[in-house]
Amino acid sequence: MNKTRNILIATSLAVGLSGCASTPINHFSGTRPQTALKQKNVTIVTDVTDGQFQSGCLFAVTHKCREATFSKKELVTLYEKLETSALKESGALAEQAESVPATGWAIQTSIHTLPPSKYEVMVHYDLGKTLSLGIIPIVGMFTPRYYSMDVTLADKITIYHDGKAVWEKTVPVHEVKKISASHFSSDGLHSDAAEKAYSDAQTPAVADTIQELGVLLR
To answer: How many angstroms separate the CA atoms of 52 and 72, rounded?
Structure first.
């Protein structure tokens, strides 16, 4: 009887952990214009201008190996997915490009570190907490790995119309968030929780941009 009960507990925990990330990661949930952007074509251009990047050996014992960063590609891809979602929710048609076009509307975002930080996004593996909870019988088998995520960056955002800058703003983003990743899913750096934390941190910057674009298009 006890053996059966333990199996049921373990199964329930596994299912619960595997289903934690039910909300779409890059779905924009901020305030958006209702009419001004409908059927408008908007080009989005995003780049990363500085920062140091390191990855690998998240689960090693040494301090250096317990830290990892999003790559430039991840910083850009996740931001553009969020921005595309915001434009789509506002009725606009988004197109990604490498540079600002000579005609039409465009949003260029340059992501850079917020001094004195050297990293836009740093994920720290909490080895002590993970190990201490992992020794709990049955429950420990399904305990997530624990991390701390630092987002320390600034977004320099410029809106262009027909190749000319018509609005510019730099939005600082500084958040620290505790996250976890299931043993049955990806590691902390590439987990849904890490991607969602980054997207949540970037939502105010995207919201400001979409609101201002709506004003310019009235």
So the answer is: 9
Side chain identity, residue 145:
R
Cα separation, 162 vs 126, whole angstroms: 49
Q: How far is CA 8 from the centre of its chain?
A: 34
Domain span at residue 24 reads: 2-216
| pLDDT score of 164 | 98
- pLDDT tens digit sequence for 132-176: 665 665 555 567 888 999 999 999 999 999 999 999 999 999 999
DSSP state of 73: H
Residues 176-212 have pLDDT tens digits of 999 988 766 667 788 889 999 999 999 999 999 999 9
Q: Give per-residue burial for 172-202: e unless 16+ CB within 10 Å, then b.
A: ebeeebebbbbeebebbbbbbbbbbbbbbbb
Q: Enumerate residues 6+ apart whose C-beta is below 8 A from 63.
A: none
- Tokens representing 140 are 């420990």
Instruction: Specify the 3-state DSSP secondary structure of 127.
Output: helix
User: Is the preceding omega at residue 24 within 30 degrees of 0, hence cis?
Assistant: no
- Which contiguous run of DSSP H or E holds residue 208? helix 192-216
Number of domains comprising the chain = 1
Q: What is the CATH number of the domain that holds 153?
A: 3.40.50
